[in-house]
Structures are given as structure tokens and as C-alpha cells.
UniProtKB/TrEMBL annotation:
InterPro entries: LRR_dom_sf (IPR032675). This is F-box domain-containing protein. It comes from Rhizophagus clarus.
Length: 486
């Protein structure tokens, strides 16, 4: 492999760009590999799952660029730099590869130099001035907890006008966003963490000036806002209806403006909403929809959205909440939901499926498994409000589910999640695992019975036979959350 040409090596390392351990190992092979890896590692050196507080070498690298300029200042402050630091000590021009700034991570690295606020403030000014001078352009900016207004530096315009991704929070003063709005008008991905009790008008202005906004995400913190924090932001998003493709809204409470705006975003490919509310269902037409992840929605409503889709849906993830379940028409609605899935989503890969344990529903579930052969992850919830405390009935339903899975043999299925009152006898579970012919399975359940000795013995047997990869009991919240990884 050491004889691969640089282009092939670069493509291999690009696949590993988020795997810092593998990339660091590749650095040690030889100089040729090192020269190929360094530009990838330093494109976004703040994104790795490491403790930056302990990375003295990052502080040394950055301070080396500033050695001549601030050495006298640091000496006056009685800050002793490592002997390794000098203007001639760097093997590569690392910052020339950098395309990102992460305020929190850089602040952590700066704190290595000194615990004093005054020193850290001065180092921040020097660091950001250096980054803007050395980095030809920025693609990613995480400005949570920002203090210096980096867009005031003379070279900021040239660096920031190509910004593609921005992460920020509402606690930042609006003036920061007004400054960014003047420079950055081609942001494609915007992620906002709501930490304030007031409306941030600067964020709304930043959204308004964008010409290529594809992805918008809002994540509420623990604050209950005294004022409506969503209205102005959502109205700004509404003006981007012709370009925005992905919406992810983690709202703490329902908002009437959301009901007005969501139906107008007709080009959505991803619709992820925690507070969906009541809509005019005739307006929910998303022909390009690929991902649906919605809480607080009835099966009938989600079936309506699926019906109007263009057949591209890969994921349907739902939260099983009382409004979905407590309905006189649940049996009919669950039957309709299953049918809409296999008719309109034949290529679906991730599915939350809740249905009534009627013969028709079981038959339609089997049909779904035979048609939707691309299924990779399946969350199952059989709901019978009259029998949920009846162990015999729940064992009967569980056995029927396992029989259908054996008979249908969905060959691409890698993960099954059993929600709430699912129960399997030891004999039924062993028959299922002994008959499984698909991929090695990961199984999640909410029932702790499978942690008992006789179940553990059976599970370990099929782990050793490579039928099971994992078999875990988790909280209902984790089992229901398709983003929770085993």
C-alpha cells in the first residue's frame, strides 16, 4: 500500500476523514503517507472525538506561527512557552489547509496556554487574526460561545464569503449575525441551538439574505421562552421555500406559525419535527420526500403525507404517543398505514411500524416485508389496549411476529427493535434465531426479561454463531429513537 500513488491514497483517506484514530495511524507509515493525510486532518481539525484540553501539540503548532509577534508579551506575563515552540519548528504549513473554525474547541486549546481570562482574551485575538490571515477560505464555522467579532478583521470578507456551514446559538448578540449577514450569503447548512428567552432578530436577518440555504436545524434548550422564539425565524425560512430541502425542528412547544410555514416548503427531502400540530392535510404535498421523522402525529396524518410523496422515501420514524393510539379507528388506521408504506415506499430502509394485532394487520405486515426488501432497521409495536396486561396474549402476538419474520426472511434487515409489551417465549425465540438466514442481527427491546439467565444463555449461543451481533434491553426512549445506535 505504501506504493499507491497520491490520488489513490487521498481517496482512501477521504473515506476515513472522520476517523481520527485511523488517520493518525496512517501518519506514521512514511513521509509520503503523512503528506497526504495532513491536509485531510487539518481541513477541520476541531471535529474529532478527542479531549482537546490535553492536546498541547495543537497549542504549540498554533503558537509557533505567532512566536515572534507575541513572545515578548507572553514573557511579560511570565508564560513559559515549551522549548519546541519556534518560528522554524513546523514540518507543514498546517493552517493553510484549515477550512474551519470552532470557537469552543479553540478556546479550550487557548486555555492550555494560561488559565487567566486576560491572557486568554489576548490569545484569542491573536489566534483569530492568524486564522483569517493564513486560511484562504472557511467552509465551516461553529461560533457558539463566541467573544471576538471575527468579521471585523480586515481579511474576514475574503475568508467568510465562501462559508457553507454555520452552527450558532441564540444567546449570541444580534450584532454578530448582522455582521455575518453582510459577508456570508451562500450558507448551505445552518444549525441553531436555542439558549435564550428572547427573540434573536439577527438570526432571522442572516436567514433572509441567504441564496443557497439547503438545510435548517433548530434545537431548543431547557428554556421556556417568554416570547415566541419561532415566528420570525419561521417566516424567514418560508421565504426560502424554493431552495430549502431539509428541515429539522426540535421545538419544545407547538407554534401556529409552524402550521402556516411547513406546508409551503414543497421541496423538502427531509422533514423532522417534534411538534407537528394540526395541518390542512391537502397542503402536505412533498414529492421529493426521503426522510420523515415526526412526533405527535396520527397514523392517518402520516399516511396522508406518504400518499402524496413521490416514492423516494427511505425512512419513516415516529414517536408512539397517546394521540396516535387512543382512537376508535386505530385498527383501520394502522392497516392503512402499512399499505401506504409498501405501496408508496418500496425502497424504505428505516421504519417505525405500529399496528393492531388483527389477522388483516398481520397479513399486511407480512406483505410489507416481502415487498420492502431494502429494510435495514425495523421498529415494531403491536398495540392492543385491551390485552396489554395479558401475558398469554402478548406471547401469542410475539410468536406470530417471529413466524412472519422467519417466513418473509427480509435479507437486508440488520436491526429489529421491539417496543413496549413485546414478549417471546424461550422456545419461540430459539426457533426464530435458529431459522434466521439474513444479516447478523442487532436486537433492542424494552423488556428486561431477556436479561435473565436462561435467555442470556440462549442469546450468547447465537452470538457465538454470528446470528446475533447485539441483544440489549434499553429504555423505551432509546428503543423508539431510530438515531440511537446500539
Amino acid at each position: 500500500m505504501s506504493k499507491f500513488n497520491r490520488d489513490i491514497l487521498f481517496l482512501i483517506f477521504e473515506v476515513l476523514r472522520n476517523d481520527s484514530k485511523s488517520l493518525f495511524s496512517c501518519l506514521m507509515v512514511n513521509r509520503f503517507w503523512c503528506e497526504t493525510v495532513i491536509p485531510i486532518l487539518w481541513r477541520n481539525p476541531w471535529c474529532y472525538d478527542i479531549n482537546y484540553k490535553n492536546k498541547d501539540y495543537l497549542f504549540i503548532i498554533i503558537i509557533s506561527y505567532l512566536y515572534n509577534d507575541i513572545n515578548e508579551f507572553l514573557t511579560r506575563q511570565e508564560i513559559q512557552l515549551p522549548l519546541l515552540v519556534s518560528s522554524q519548528s513546523l514540518m507543514f504549513d498546517y493552517l493553510s489547509f484549515c477550512r474551519s473554525i470552532n470557537i469552543q474547541t479553540i478556546s479550550t486549546i487557548i486555555s492550555i496556554g494560561s488559565p487567566l481570562d486576560y491572557i486568554q482574551f489576548n490569545l484569542q485575538q491573536e489566534f483569530y487574526s492568524l486564522f483569517i490571515k493564513k486560511c484562504p477560505e472557511f467552509k465551516y464555522l461553529d461560533m457558539r460561545s463566541i467573544k471576538p467579532q471575527i468579521f471585523h478583521f480586515p481579511e474576514a470578507k475574503a475568508c467568510l464569503e465562501s462559508l457553507c456551514e454555520l452552527k450558532c446559538d441564540t444567546f449570541i448578540d444580534s450584532s454578530y449575525f448582522y455582521g455575518l449577514a453582510r459577508l456570508c450569503q451562500y450558507i448551505q447548512r445552518l444549525v441553531i441551538f436555542n439558549r435564550n428567552t428572547n427573540v434573536n432578530h439577527g438570526i432571522a436577518k442572516l436567514i433572509e439574505v441567504q441564496r443557497n440555504l439547503k438545510y435548517f436545524e433548530w434545537i431548543d434548550g431547557l428554556y421556556r421562552n417568554l416570547y415566541n422564539p419561532y415566528r420570525e425565524i419561521l417566516l424567514a425560512i418560508e421565504k426560502k421555500a424554493d431552495i430549502i430541502n431539509h428541515i429539522k425542528l426540535k421545538f419544545m412547544y407547538d407554534d401556529i406559525t409552524l402550521r402556516q410555514v411547513i406546508p409551503k416548503l414543497h421541496k423538502l427531502k427531509t422533514l423532522i419535527v417534534t411538534c407537528f400540530g394540526d395541518f390542512n392535510k391537502d397542503q402536505l404535498n412533498y414529492h421529493d420526500l426521503v426522510v420523515i421523522k415526526i412526533a405527535h402525529i396520527t397514523l392517518y396524518d402520516v399516511s396522508t403525507i406518504i400518499e402524496s410523496s413521490g416514492g423516494h422515501i427511505k425512512e419513516v420514524s415516529l414517536n408512539f404517543f397517546p394521540k396516535m393510539l387512543n382512537t376508535d379507528d386505530f385498527d383501520k388506521e394502522s392497516l392503512l398505514f402499512i399499505r401506504k408504506i409498501y405501496k408508496k415506499c418500496p425502497s424504505i430502509e428505516y421504519l417505525s411500524l405500529i399496528f393492531s394485532p388483527s389477522k388483516k394487520n398481520f397479513a399486511e405486515f407480512e406483505k410489507l416485508l416481502k415487498i420492502c426488501q431494502n429494510l435495514k432497521s425495523l421498529l415494531l409495536h403491536v398495540y392492543d389496549p385491551y390485552e396489554e396486561e395479558n401475558n398469554e396474549k402478548m406471547l401469542e402476538y410475539g410468536e406470530e411476529i417471529l413466524k412472519i419474520l422467519i417466513k418473509s426472511n427480509p435479507i437486508n434487515l440488520r436491526e429489529i427493535r421491539f417496543f413496549d409489551h413485546f414478549k417471546f417465549s424461550l422456545e419461540a425465540l430459539e426457533k426464530f434465531l435458529g431459522s434466521w438466514r439474513g444479516h447478523t442481527l442487532s436486537i433492542l427491546t424494552t423488556d428486561s426479561i431477556y436479561e435473565r439467565k436462561y435467555y442470556k444463555k440462549l442469546i450468547n449461543k447465537y452470538k457465538n454463531n454470528c446470528v446475533i451481533k447485539d441483544f440489549k434491553c434499553e429504555s423505551p426512549m432509546n428503543v423508539e429513537d431510530m438515531d440511537f445506535k446500539i
